[in-house]
């Protein structure tokens, strides 16, 4: 919850009220649309119940709905539509569609989930509907609960806080700077751990906690900002700096 609130406030601070990153609104059924409903999108559940065979369903007034095959997200357990569209700078019915792929894991005394954001280029001209390549693939969310008490001594040492909790969330917004085809973007990630001393890569069960440790705290190594610039030569976004290894938060 703290990650979501922080990112909502952050996005509001550096995203304009209107611009190239457009919030979709509810349409018919489960579809999500541009505010004027000139274009509506949906990702129906795949028959296989995972990432195989997923399609993007596109509809617009006065036209028959069309389904376009999405990339084979073979390892994904879920595929959903990101509720934003990114407009091309020329406004010529070209967009980046966001697709969220998710994975979950369950294990003794805990479990976790995580998602990735994929931006895929969509040519939405009525007579030329098509999906092109993937322009971006970034960690988007993570939430893990890991058992940390295995004895009465552990319970006492940890002051009854018998689970470690790890959360990760990201926000994407338009950023200042020169744009080529698609806008420059700001990516902000926030990672938190509870108790504040916990690290997933370490054995925390024997750690003797203090009352002051029983708070959720940001992990500075995995709380960061990046600038993404679109490269027309590769049709992909390039990072201004590499990402840190935050798989402790983004791999369930």
Describe the structure.
This protein is mainly beta. The chain has one domain. Helices cover about 10% and strands about 45% of the residues. It contains 3 helices and 15 strands. The strands form 2 sheets. Strands 1, 7, 8, 9, 10, 11, 12, 13, 14 and 15 form a 10-stranded antiparallel β-sheet that branches. Strands 2-3-4-5-6 form a 5-stranded antiparallel β-sheet, with no helix packed on it. A hairpin with a 6-residue loop joins strand 7 (about 80-85) and strand 8. It is elongated and about 70 Å long. Residues about 10-15 have low confidence and may be disordered.
Q: What would the average pLDDT be, to the nearest integer?
A: 89
How many helices does DSSP assign?
3
Uncertain ranges? 8-17
The total strand number stands at: 15
Strand content: 35-45%
What gross morphology would you assign? elongated
Rounded to an integer in angstroms, the radius of gyration calculated over CA atoms is: 20 Å
Question: What is the straight-line distance between the termini?
Answer: 18 Å
Name a few traits of the molecule.
252 residues; mainly beta; 10-stranded antiparallel sheet; 5-stranded antiparallel sheet; 3 helices; 15 strands
What's the helix and strand layout?
Elements (H helix, E strand, L loop, with lengths): L1 H13 L6 E3 L1 E2 L5 E2 L6 E3 L12 E5 L6 E4 L8 E10 L6 E14 L2 E14 L6 E18 L4 H6 L5 E12 L10 E10 L22 E2 L5 E8 L4 E4 L7 H4 L2
Antiparallel strand pairs: 1-7, 2-3, 3-4, 4-5, 5-6, 7-8, 8-9, 9-10, 10-11, 11-12, 12-13, 12-14, 14-15
């Amino acid at each position: 919850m703290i990650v979501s609130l922080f990112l909502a406030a952050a996005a509001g601070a550096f995203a304009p009220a209107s611009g190239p990153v457009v919030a979709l609104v509810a349409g018919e059924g489960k579809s999500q649309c541009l505010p004027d409903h000139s274009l509506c999108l949906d990702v129906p559940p795949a028959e296989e119940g995972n990432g195989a065979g997923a399609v993007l369903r596109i509809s617009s007034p006065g036209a028959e709905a069309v389904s376009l095959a999405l990339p084979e997200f073979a390892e994904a357990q879920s595929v959903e539509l990101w509720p934003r569209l990114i407009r091309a700078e020329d406004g010529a019915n070209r967009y980046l569609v966001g697709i969220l792929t998710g994975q979950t894991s369950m294990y003794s005394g805990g479990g976790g989930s995580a998602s990735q954001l994929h931006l895929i280029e969509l040519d939405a001209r009525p007579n030329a509907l098509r999906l092109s390549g993937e322009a971006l693939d970034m960690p988007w969310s993570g939430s893990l609960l890991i058992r940390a008490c295995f004895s009465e001594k552990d319970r006492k040492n940890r002051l009854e806080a018998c689970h470690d909790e790890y959360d990760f969330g990201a926000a994407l917004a338009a950023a200042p700077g020169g744009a080529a085809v698609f806008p420059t973007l700001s990516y902000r990630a926030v990672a938190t751990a509870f108790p504040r001393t916990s690290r997933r890569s370490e054995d925390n069960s024997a750690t003797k906690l203090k009352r002051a440790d029983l708070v959720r705290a940001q992990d500075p190594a995995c709380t960061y900002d990046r600038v993404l610039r679109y490269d027309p030569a590769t049709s992909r976004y390039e990072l201004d700096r590499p990402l840190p290894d935050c798989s402790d938060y983004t791999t369930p």
